[in-house]
Amino acid sequence: MDLLHYVFFYLVAALLLFQGTHALGEQREPMGVVPAELVPARREPARRFGWLLVLAGALAILVGLLSHGWTALQPFLRPLVWRLLGLMGLYGIYVIFLAHKVDFAGRPSVGAHGH
Question: 38-63: per-residue pLDDT in tens?
Answer without folding.
Answer: 555 566 777 888 899 899 999 888 98
